[in-house]
Write a structure and sequence with these properties.
Ig-like domain-containing protein, mainly beta, disulfide bond, T cell receptor, receptor, immunity, 10 strands, 0% helix
Length: 139
């Protein structure tokens, strides 16, 4: 590979806590590949298989030293919210109820991160921020 800069795109899986207690046959969300190392300006496709029966799918990423960042949300295969998606080089689709892809093309060193996929059978998204009260202060 010569002097080309390599960087890694790592994948993790967000699995509901209760899935630990389910039968072994319930694999939860499946992401492939688990790790991806590529050269600059290449294409990377990350795949996610949601839990069977789940109609809501979310993609996130976490860059080293930063908070988890929302990318896109699908419901019944349709995009509901993609405000977090960098649209210049990133694209995502959910062509079937059992598969979603996140594509990065061309890759750049700043794309090196952990990319996460999560699925849910229900969701409780808010379309406006919750009001926050200041905490009580006791003197």
């Amino acid at each position: 590979m010569g002097t080309h800069t390599l960087y890694c795109v790592a994948l993790c899986v967000l699995v509901p806590i209760l899935s630990f207690f389910t039968e072994h046959t319930d694999a939860g969300v499946i992401q492939t590949p688990r790790h991806e190392v590529t050269e600059k300006r290449q294409a990377v496709t990350l795949r996610c298989e949601p839990i069977s029966g789940h109609t809501h799918l979310f993609w996130y990423r976490q860059t080293a030293g930063k908070e988890l960042e929302f990318l896109i949300y699908f419901s019944s295969r349709s995009v509901v919210d993609d405000k977090g998606m960098p649209k210049d080089r990133f694209s995502a689709e959910m062509p079937s109820a059992s598969s979603s892809t996140l594509k990065i093309q061309p890759t750049e060193p700043k794309d090196s991160a952990v990319y996460l996929c999560a699925s849910s059978s229900t969701t409780a998204l808010q379309d406006r921020p919750l009001q926050v009260q200041k905490p009580w202060r006791f003197s």
